[in-house]
Amino acid sequence: MKKEERKKHWENIYQTKKFNEVSWFQAVPTLSLSFLKEFNIASDDAIVDVGGGDSFLPDYLLKLGYTDISVVDISEAAIERAKTRLGKDANKIQWILEDAATFEPNRIYDFWHDRAAFHFFTEEKEILHYLDTVQKHLTQKGIFVLGTFSESGPTKCSGIEIKQYSENTMAEQLKKCFEKIKCVSEDHKTPFETIQNFVFCSFRKLQFQN
């Protein structure tokens, strides 16, 4: 799918569906928050949520006292919805209107979070470009948390083909730049009472990487 088509698709989704009418809705992003706690991410560490849409993760990050939060999404409608929900607190977040596949940060981050953006990259050039971007814009001791549909999960999301991963295939895909710390499985219950199985893995940059 071309960038223009991808943007049009997601704008339509966020303009026509309520926040709790999409399969990825989570009232509380429990697993994502657990990674922050596990790796002792400091309140002033730089956090980026790529493909965050109008998720509730920023709300909880603010409640926990985090002060350097960025959210990247291709959909302006999604970002505007999140801003409206957060009210004046929206000014505490850096909102970045970009396609995750071509996102080029102008800074580095201590914690890079991606719940279900990466699995939309089905072309090798997009996958490699994205991973190279993460590697270049993550601090040497930073943490990369990546969540995708597992090999037991759906093969499409919002009508778009995705690439499934297992713990092993994800680690293999990232091995040139990252070392796996751990992986966990999550059964995400959608608002439609269906179950989607995810695999979430945490990674550190290999020490020889700059």
Structure description:
With 210 residues, this protein is α/β, with parallel strands linked by helices. It has a single domain, classed as Vaccinia Virus protein VP39 (Rossmann fold). It is 30% helix and 29% strand. It is built from six helices and nine strands, in the order ααβαβαββαβββαββ. The strands form two sheets. The chain has a seven-stranded mixed β-sheet with strand order 3-2-1-4-5-9-8, sandwiched between helices. Strands 6-7 form a two-stranded antiparallel sheet. Strand 8 (178-189) and strand 9 form a beta hairpin. Helix 1 runs parallel beside helix 4. The termini are far apart. The model has no long low-confidence stretch (mean pLDDT 95).
